[in-house]
Amino acid sequence: MNTPFWNRIAIVMGFFLLFAGIMHFVNPQFFNDIVPPWLPPSESFWTYISGVAEIVIALMLFRPSTRRRGAYLAVALFVAVYPANLYMTWDWRDRAASEQFVSYARLPFQFLFIWAAVQVARANPDTSRPAVPGDVVAR
């Protein structure tokens, strides 16, 4: 596995998540509108909590020491927000074709993001645990 390549992907993914996370606070209404309304407690709660998660995960992806965990958390995040993408596609069914295209295009890209995050995690070994019994892990 080409670790330098996947580390560059981790940085790009980190910037993407950082930008997206910040946008949750800059323009929360867009994100509130795509949160399925039946999720308790409120759309705003999910907008802000996912924004915080994206920022934290981005910072983890930037640091080599937390990149592996950050990548696995990115996988969990991408899976967790998929219902919002599905809801957006359903909710935008009566909009202009160009907007519908955007909502449909997001669906397969989520799987690409999940795959890339798994590859980043696999390319970064877990150095926080001993490799064999008796190893000493420097902290």
Automatic annotation (TrEMBL):
Can you say where in the cell this protein is located? Membrane
Question: InterPro entries from the xrefs?
Answer: Methylamine_util_MauE
User: Which residues are listed as membrane-spanning?
Assistant: 5-25, 45-62, 71-90
Coiled coil residues, start to end: none
Q: Which UniProt keywords apply?
A: Membrane, Transmembrane, Transmembrane helix
**Primary location group:** membrane
Would I find Cell inner membrane among this entry's keywords?
A: no
Any one cellular-component term (Gene Ontology): membrane
Membrane topology category: Multi-pass membrane protein
Residue intervals of the Methylamine utilisation protein MauE domain = 9-81
Family annotation (PANTHER family): DOXX FAMILY MEMBRANE PROTEIN, MEMBRANE PROTEIN-RELATED
What name does the UniProt record give this protein? Unannotated protein
What is the species of this protein? freshwater metagenome
Tell me the organism's taxonomic lineage: unclassified sequences, metagenomes, ecological metagenomes
